[in-house]
Specification:
Strand content: 35-45%
Distance between the termini: 30 Å
Largest sheet: 5 strands, antiparallel
Order of helices and strands: EHEEEEHH
Number of strands: 5
CATH class: Alpha Beta
Shape: globular
CATH superfamily: Kinase associated domain 1, KA1
Structural class: alpha+beta
CATH topology: TATA-Binding Protein
């Protein structure tokens, strides 16, 4: 298994950050076919081979994910895509 742990700072309001995270989740669903659900201020996402969460923190978001054996080989691509979308949506 392989772990992704990304922290991304932003200057958005909580409401705007939540909307941006929802857009990130839509991108993850489109690109990686994950299921996503909100639990309070955390957005959990999962599919076969990946289980993760996007946590809303004061002035930042944190993406944590555990990749299964097959997706571990694609860790760099998955991590890069998450960072790209976070930068695009959260600034």
């Amino acid at each position: 298994m392989s772990t992704i742990d990304i922290r991304h700072a932003h200057t958005l309001s909580d409401e705007s950050a939540r909307e941006a995270i929802a857009e990130v989740a839509r991108k993850l669903q489109e690109r990686f076919d994950v299921n996503a659900r909100w639990e309070g201020t955390n957005l959990h996402f999962a599919r076969s081979g990946v289980d993760g969460v996007i946590e809303m923190l004061p002035g930042a978001v944190r993406v944590k994910a555990e990749l299964g054996f097959l997706l571990s080989a694609m860790k760099g691509m998955v991590e890069s895509e998450i960072q790209r979308v976070l930068a695009e949506k959260l600034g």
